[in-house]
Amino acid sequence: MRRIERSERRPIVDFRASPVSIRRATIDDRAGVTQVLKASYPVLMKQAYDKEVLARALPVMTVSQPALLNSGTYYVAETSDGTIVGCGGWSKERPGSNEVRPRLGHVRHFGVHPNWTRQGIGLSIYHSCVEDAKAAGINRLECYSSLNGEPFYQALGFKSLETIDLPMSEGVHLPSVRMVAKI
């Protein structure tokens, strides 16, 4: 695993006149979300992880999660022709458990197709999540960021707390960073 050096980090761009729209996801978006994750994660994560780690983790990570799609707190970004190019959301439940802590939400399963990065899509989805979370009484968000995602979340105001080995499935762990932000 390799940390992304500060010199490799680029600022997040917020393009207000984006050719995509953000909407709540439904179970019907399952294939489109999986397609985005399968296109995004291998490309965007390859500079931060060893090939062996990705070979074990990607089959688990690149599948959409029906519970998130049905949650009402998961979003997709789509083009005018209905192509999904980004996704992400939040939940009250800590990932991998049913644990809920008062006023704490969790950022979940973000991804942007590599052909659509740097266009404010992830930022727009995140803003939708924050708006929802605040309306639900949440005042802090926690995320388990991939190593390559850490600069994105730092730019959103998240603070890195610790490096963790995030369990993906039996015997598969992904080095990640636990982060938190006040919203």
Describe this structure in words.
With 183 residues, this protein is of the alpha+beta class. Residues 1-16 have low confidence and may be disordered. It is built from five helices and seven strands; from the N terminus they run βαααβββαβαββ. The radius of gyration is 15 Å and the shape is globular. Strands 1-2-3-4-5-7-6 form a seven-stranded mixed β-sheet.
Keywords:
183 residues, alpha+beta, Aminopeptidase, 5 helices
**Taking all residues together, what is the mean pLDDT?**
91
**Strand fraction:** 25-35%
Report how far the terminal alpha carbons are from each other.
Answer: 30 Å
Secondary-structure element sequence?
EHHHEEEHEHEE
CATH topology: Aminopeptidase
Shape: globular
- Our count of domains comes out at 1
Structural class: alpha+beta
Uncertain runs are 1-16
Strand order of the largest sheet: 1-2-3-4-5-7-6
- Number of beta-strand segments: 7
Give me the oligomer status.
Answer: single chain
Instruction: Give the second-level CATH assignment, the architecture.
Output: 3-Layer(aba) Sandwich
- What is the level 1 CATH name? Alpha Beta
CATH superfamily, please?
Answer: Gcn5-related N-acetyltransferase (GNAT)
In percent, how helical is the residue content? 25-40%
